[in-house]
Amino acid sequence: MFKHLIKIAACMGLAAAQAKAQPLTIDSCYAMALRNYPQIRQYALIDKTRDYTLNNAAKAYLPQVSLTAIEGYVFGGFPESGGSNFKFIGLAQVNQTVWDGGATKTQKKIIEASAEADKASVDVSLHDIRSRVNQLYFGVLMVDEQLKQLAIQDSILNNNIRAVQLKSDNGLAYKTDVDEVRAEQLRLHQQRTEFSYTRSGYIKVLSLLIARPLNNEAILDKPLPAGQYAGMDIVRPELNLFKQQRNLATAQAGMQKVNLYPKLGVLGAGVLFAPGINLGPTALSSLGVLGVSASWNINGLYKNNNDKQLTTQQLNKIDVQEATFLFNTRLQLSQSAATIDKQRAILTDDESIVALRRSIREGYQVKYDNGVSPVIDLLNAGQRELDARALKALHEMQLLMTIYDYKTISGN
């Protein structure tokens, strides 16, 4: 999954000019954040380590040559050589493995399984990046929705200022009415400034996370909510990690069988004496041996039953860890699903509340225009409409973020 996202990110341009022309999507942010995260380089390191280790294991069937040289003083019952007791002795031995009981084959399986387990562990660590992207991405979208509502309210206040100013110029309204509307608009501008700085902070951190230059005008695409979120299977990378850990334990258990078998090979050895050794009428200066070697360490027979039990316990331990992980994940998904249901229930009333608040504000507008209601009542009604619209927008984004958190928890 992660490698697929990395390939997607590799195809994306990083020019800042494209940020204005093409909105960012949450999936592209996932991919770029993964590609930029330093831990992603561990994949290449794991592959290289595996290749070098496999290459070393493959050399087990190459001839093994050992050379030994001795220069020393010979004493005791060594045959006379007619010369000095200082002698040079050279030893050479060549061992060629014919069958190692399957040790090399099993070792290669262990190396492959270990590399896959290491990669799965990296996958687990990288999965947490999705949560970071969610927080920043939806943080920006929430701020954008609030800024959008403030812009609508600012447009309404601009119309109010023109209307109140006209009435004041004609002596139909007090100057304080104009001041009331302008003060409300200044308070609105303060809120816009605060939200703008909050958005800028989110954008800066997101830019660092995905390694792409983003300015304050960067546009983030609002994702569509998933319909059937509750039916998603759990496909978290932890499950693959447990699988690879089982494969590794099974591969390592193969060494138990290897330890039960003998090892066969061909042996060649040579000895050189200088000066030679007198053996009656002849002198011995060199000696060679060629034959078949066999070795069998029976310690594996003693430990075989215990080793099998250890492997079984190790596999049981992995099963318990997986069951615990699935139990906790299902609890999280259940809590998240309950939150989604609650947020959807709340949203069903938001549209009605906004419509009522709009109608109330329009009613106060008519009352003020007819001179039967003070401007402060109109402003209060406008603020309550703004609060209703802002709350509706917040609830929508919270629902969307919770759905994506649900997807992240399940691994989809």
From TrEMBL:
Query: One GO CC term of this entry?
Result: efflux pump complex
Ubl conjugation listed as a keyword: no
Q: Where is the signal peptide?
A: 1-21
What keywords are annotated for this sequence in UniProt? Cell outer membrane, Membrane, Signal, Transmembrane, Transmembrane beta strand
InterPro entries membership: TolC-like (IPR051906)
Gene Ontology MF term list: efflux transmembrane transporter activity; porin activity
Q: Which domain of life is it from?
A: Bacteria
- Keyword Membrane included in the entry's annotation: yes
Q: Where would you find this protein in the cell?
A: Cell outer membrane
Q: What name is this protein filed under?
A: RND-type efflux pump outer membrane protein
